[in-house]
Give the backbone structure.
Amino acid sequence: MNVNITNHPLIQHKLSMMRSVDTGCKEFRELASEIAGLLCYEVTRDLEMKTAEITTPITTATLPVLANEKFAVVPILRAGLGMVDGVLNLIPNIKVGHIGLYRDPNTLEPVEYYCKLPTDIEERHVFLVDPMLATGGSASAAISLLKNKGVKNIRCVNILAAPEGVRRINEDHPDIPVYCAALDECLNDHGYIVPGLGDAGDRIFGTK
C-alpha cells in the first residue's frame, strides 16, 4: 500500500493518549492539533529547495529557502478542522480551504455540500486533512474535487488510517500519497476503525 507511517516517538505517545477513553475534549483537541503539526513536519520533508542571497548581521550568504511557498491546507468538514491549527503553527502563511461532504443515505456515496478554496488553488501544494481515513470514500471524493479544480500536488494527511481506506485511495488515486500516524487493523461492522479512537468529530467538538 502507498502509505507513509510516521513512527516518531512523540507522535506515537500523543496518539496513544488520544485513543484513551479517559481523554477529555480539551486534551483531545490539543493532541489532534499537536499531532497534525508533527505530521506536517514529516509531510513537508521532501519539498523542493532553492538558494537565495540572505544578509545576516555578520555577512551575506547564499542559503537554502523553499522553491515554492504556495501551500493550502484543506480540511474535510467537520473533523478535519481539528488539524488545521497544528498546520498553521508550522506554516503560518498557508491558505485554508474547506470541503464539506455528507453520505447519501440511499447510495451511500459522498455528496458535496460545501466547497470554498483559495482562488489560485491549482498553483498550490495542497494538504488534505482529516483525522480518520476509514472507508476512504470522503477522502477519495475530496481528492477528485480538488483534481477537477486543477490541483496537481495533493497529499492526504490523516492521524489514523484503516487498510480499507488506504486501499480505496490507492485504487482511485494511485498518484496521491497517504501520510498517517498509524495504520490500524480494520473497520468494524459500524465503519469504525479498530482499535481506533472513536468518532474524532464528536471527541474534538464535544458533541457526544
